[in-house]
Amino acid sequence: MAERFVTFDIREVEKFIDNEENSNTRKKTKNDMALLISFMAKEKENRQVEEIPPQELDNYLSRFLLSVRKKNGDEYEPSTLRGFIASIERYLKKCRYSESVITGQNFARTRDALKSKQKHLKRLGKGNKPNEASSLTPEERDILFERKEMGFSSPKALINTQS
């Protein structure tokens, strides 16, 4: 008779989870974190991002969002800034960081900086694509699933998933 439960140690669980992550998501997270780390180095901050207390990290992230530019000096699209936050959230979650950047009390300044910067960029004409369908980015979908606004956690979440 076959075994009902297969034995896995914690390293095997982590490896399985990593292997199932979308490769494009993994690349985006890696690239976005490299960008944040280069900003932190410019700020003379040498600690690992996950070692920085939430209130200090909030200060760094809010300044990062306001200062980051493309290599050619142009501003990013508003949705790209949102993607940076989603990547940072994924990274910190994987490191078992104590607080969420997206929902945590100590990251209000980061969220305010993101909203303000997105409004500013939209006034400059960024992100205004009148013929583009309004759909969720993969990062936004991930967040909705994490918050149980989409998925199988409730009838409303299930309806939101089908829309």
Low-pLDDT stretches are: none
Q: Which structural class do you get from the secondary structure elements?
A: mainly alpha
User: What percentage of the residues does DSSP assign to strands (E)?
Assistant: under 5%
Number of helices: 7
Report the end-to-end length measured between terminal Cα atoms.
44 Å
Gyration radius (Cα, Å) is 18 Å
> How is the main sheet built?
none
Organism: Porites evermanni
Region (Disordered): 118-139
Pfam families: QRICH1
Domain QRICH1-like: 19-116
Key terms for this structure?
mainly alpha, KIAA1958, about 160 residues, QRICH1_dom, 7 helices, QRICH1-like domain-containing protein, globular
Question: Could you characterize what this model shows?
Answer:
The mean pLDDT is 90. 17% of the residues are buried. It contains seven helices and no strands. It has helices spanning 10-20, 23-42, 54-67, 78-94, 108-123, 138-146, 155-162. The chain is mostly helical and 163 residues long. It is 58% helix and 0% strand.
Q: How do you describe this structure in short?
A:
The chain has helices at 10-20, 23-42, 54-67, 78-94, 108-123, 138-146, 155-162. The chain is mainly alpha-helical. The protein is globular.
Layout of secondary structure:
Elements: H1 10-20, H2 23-42, H3 54-67, H4 78-94, H5 108-123, H6 138-146, H7 155-162
Helix pairs in contact: 2-4, 3-5, 4-5
